[in-house]
Amino acid sequence: MRVPLSWLQEYVDITLTPEELADKLTLAGIAVEAIERLQPEFKGVVTGLIKEIEPHPHADHLLICRVDVGGRILSLVTGAPNVAVGCKVAVALEGARLPGGVEIRRASFRGVESAGMLCSAQELGLDTSLISPEEREGIILLPPDALPGSDVSQVLGLHETILELELTPNRADCLGIINVAREVAALTGAYLRLPSVEVTESEMRAADLAEIEIEATDLCGRYVARIVGGVRIGPSPAWIQARLRAAGMRPINNIVDVTNYVMLELNQPLHAFDYDLLQQHRIIVRRAAPGEKIVTLDGVERDLDEEMLVIADAGRAVAVAGVMGGLNTEVTSETVNVLIESAHFDGSSIRRTSRRLGLRSEASLRFERGVDIEGAALAADRAAQLMAQLSGGKVARGRLDCYACPRAKTVITLRPERLNELLGTDLTPGTIREYLERLHLKVEGERVLQVTVPSYRGDLTQEIDLVEEVARLYGYDAIPVTLPGSNTADEKETPRRRWEEAGREAAVACGLSEVITYSFINPKVFDWLRLPPDHPWRRVVKLQNPLREEQAVLRPSLLPGLLEVAARNANRKVLPVTIFEIGRVFKPGDAELPEEPLCLSALVLGELPKGWDWPPQVLDFYYLKGIVEEILERLRVGNVRFEPASEYPFLHPGRAAFVLSGDTPLGFLGEIYPDVAAAYDLPARTCVFELDWDLAGQKAEIGATYRPLSRFPAVERDLAVVVDEEIPSVALEEVICAAGGEILSSCRLFDVYRGGQIPPNKKSMAYELVFQHPDRTLTDQEVNARYLAIQETLERKLGAVLRR
Question: Does the global pTM surpass 0.90?
Fold first, then answer.
């Protein structure tokens, strides 16, 4: 909202500097984003009145104008197409300076001397968006009341200071300059001068000239109309044009300019119809008919739907209500009689219509935020008053006022003790009353105040709103600083939260980078993962109103998000990819809300770069298996083992495993199936794991157990056995540990061999065994006995044969 300071001073005396006023308004909640000072970029340009025009004797495209510049007549040569006798124009005199440092001198054009120059808007450095299309092609035409010889910068209002307000949605009333003046008066204690609205009416009765009907009463609460007859269309006077331009609006003609002027003044959008073009002189406020169209004032034909509110006459739509008028009833130079519309439309309806049509206007902005339904009649009277003054028209007697939904009076109870409790102040009821009355609120009562809110303050609806108003005037900076009391206990970290953070720290320690993906996923991922129709992951929680189809269901696994992140990085050659996520997944259950177990998932892809003395390391199944083991070992999840798995269709059947703690399955680990990798455009050998982290937490030891290092020497023995190909290493390790007893401190697989010396469908497994006693030195006999026991047990239980 642009507020010209000279316009504001018409309603309230301002003794503060613009900077001081801006600070005062901003501290009171009316933020002033900027202060703009308009200054002309030219000097020596005056108003001229064209007295005569004659063609140039030696050039068809040039004209010679005799121009009165205030007591003297100058001969000026121009090629502008829009000059006419009687026009007021901008004349750069000899010696004048224009933007860019251009100095005007006498010049001869095809043998005819020109004593100056007729100026265009561009040559004066003006904003051409605020100039009519005709003037953009030729010279700028000044208002008819500009005096010959007067300074053009004064005529155009270029010595102006403008406050640019950034209003919050609740202060839509300050989109009207009079309401900004009310704020200034309340903050400074200055007297508020409202414009005197006195309409001189003719003998014609408005009720005999037109008829108003509101069909859509839910979308239009009030419609007020005034009729002005016998108008003469022409340019507005200089003061109106200057104010409109300063506020950012383009002057058009005296009738349209009045509607815009009153809108900026009173925050009530208006529209002017050519009365004679309204069929049967009827106004009907209704919803658009199916397939109805209208050509708006910008010349665009627009398709309407049945949810849009239109203003219609007896036969067709003549305006999109609250947004823009129709071309079929536009006020033009031929208009003689005008019907003024001042209405109150539903803000939500106007917002929807504006968005669907892609059409925003100053009027729609105000209706969307809310206007004063009680102010519609005053705005219509003010517009009729100005139109009569500026166009010579006669105002028909009476208003056409269809008030379908009268506004109920708003009365709010304010308790002074409650106000002081909230603000930390000690204001008396009399002081509070004074502040509220400065805002033109009617206050009754002594100890408990009954406050009647004026209709233009739609943001005041409850007691706390009045508390805020008092705080604004008292001054936020004057309120004592106190810390609010609190009975809440300090937040305590729950075991579940500590376990989640422990998993995150362990994954980072293993070289993984955390990512956070959307909880909403595309239902098509289940097809990309090759899941059968009855797979549990296909039982998902669906969103009732998804933002888009690609985010229509809640994730049952973290895997889809990790695959998308990996694909995005791989497509941009950002390798290797080593990522993890710890977060909630969603599974529908019997309860109203879904289950939300915490999961830890990771993905690796590519290879670690080689160093000066070591080769590159491929991030394969075994690399990720080592990370799983390291994470679970760090967090004391015991008895971890891996078993071959074939239940996961998105994993390679020969490179997939269950992750278990004892007999409890924690999750899966494996290499992504080639078809799935291709669906995500991923390179081969992408490996993933996912663990039920809540379940893993139940298997973790609560406290660390200290075991001192043995002071006695250890004995190391290697054991290589040949077993059937299908026997996993974990089965061998279980037998070895059981047969080794308490003196076997560790068992580690260090070699797997398949070759010519090994029978078909067999493999050689070599283990390093470490024997050690915590209290004494072991003898060879004890170690040999355990070693032989291990061999015999392996042979008996698993058919293992000692490799010679």
Answer: no
Cα separation, 734 vs 730, whole angstroms: 6
pLDDT recorded at residue 757: 87
Kindly report, residue by residue over 99-126, the tens digit of the pLDDT.
988 999 999 998 899 999 999 999 999 9
> What's the rounded Cα separation, in Å, for the pair 337 and 394?
9
Cα separation values, 614 from 578, 604, 685, Å: 20, 20, 21
Report the percentage of the chain scoring pLDDT > 90: 85
Can you give the pLDDT at residue 486?
A: 59
- Dihedral sign for Cα atoms in the order 178, 380, 310, 358: negative
| Bridge partners of residue 229, in order along the sequence | 394
H or E segment and range at residue 385:
helix 376-391
Helix (H, G, I), strand (E, B) or coil at 314: coil
CB 14 within 8 A of CB 184: yes
DSSP 8-state symbol, 680: T
Strands 762-771, 744-753: pairing is antiparallel
Q: What's the whole-number mean pLDDT along residues 216-242?
A: 95
Which helix (H) or strand (E) segment holds residue 142: the answer is strand 141-142
Running DSSP on this structure, what letter comes out for residue 230? S
Confidence check: pLDDT of 405 > 90: no
Kind and range of the H or E element at 160?
A: strand 160-166
Helix axes 238-246, 254-266, angle to 10 degrees: 50
Q: What is the 3-state secondary structure (H, E, C) of 563-615?
A: HHHHHHHHHCCCCCEEEEEEEECCECCCCCCCECCEEEEEEEECEECCCCCCC
Distance (Å, whole) CA 706 – CA 479: 59
Q: How many CB atoms lie within 10 A of CB 428?
A: 10
- Predicted pLDDT at 436: 95
